[in-house]
Amino acid sequence: MKKTLSIIALSIIGLGLVSCKKEATGTEVTANADSTAVQTDNMAPADSSAASATTEAAAAPVSNQPTTSVALSENNFDFGNIKKGDKVEHVYEVTNTGTNPLVISEVKPGCGCTAPDFTKDPILPGKKGKITLHFDSSNFDGNVSKYADVFANVEKAPIKLTFTANIQP
Fold first, then answer.
1. Mean residue pLDDT across the chain
2. How far is CA 49 from CA 26, 52, 62, 147, in A?
3. How far is CA 92 from the centre of its chain?
4. What gap in Å lies between CA 22 and CA 44, rounded to an integer?
């Protein structure tokens, strides 16, 4: 019995360890343009699988702010060749092109090797904010492609930011 439990535990732990190397596709949440907010039960865990009929994805954080629009300086960046173990970062510039303040509620990287920083204060119409993705290449070799999902009060959220790198020994 102990051996069976140990095998199950190791299997679960093993799945968690390889999750950094697998890329999952994000779920797109669309808010109606004529509504000011999409409401969800904020007490539900972020990874709840129970979806209501009025929202397309219960797992995505939903803003209760009026929607606005955004322009990105870019949504993909190529670090080119970097040495294994290098810690690199890239800043994505966001501009609020709408009429309501832009509120970035969360930036969720697809992997533990990527850490985000972002403008936490509301970004007023016409103003700019930043999303920085920090990448640790220590556990990778060769070509890699990573992403982070940006959750904000925009009509089509999450916004997917991606980057690539070629890790050299």
1. 74
2. 14, 10, 15, 22
3. 13
4. 26
| Segment holding 3, helix H or strand E | helix 2-18
Using one digit for the tens of pLDDT, what is the confidence trace for 109-151? Answer: 999 999 999 999 999 999 999 999 999 999 999 999 999 999 9
- DSSP assignment, residue 7? H
Report d(CA 12, CA 5) in Å as an integer: 11
d(CA 111, CA 59): 17
**Dist CA 147 CA 116 (whole Å):** 11
Q: State how far the Cα of 85 lies from the Cα of 18, in Å rounded to an integer.
A: 18
Task: Say which amino acid occupies 64.
Answer: N
pLDDT tens by residue, 16-39: 433 444 333 333 233 333 332 332
Tell if the pTM clears 0.70, that is, is over it: no
Angle at 124 between CA 78 and CA 115, to 5 degrees: 35
Contact assessment for residue 94 and residue 71, using Cβ atoms and an 8 Å cutoff: yes
Scored b (16 or more CB within 10 A) or e, 80-117 reads eebeeeeebebebebbbebebbbbbbbbbbbbebbbbe
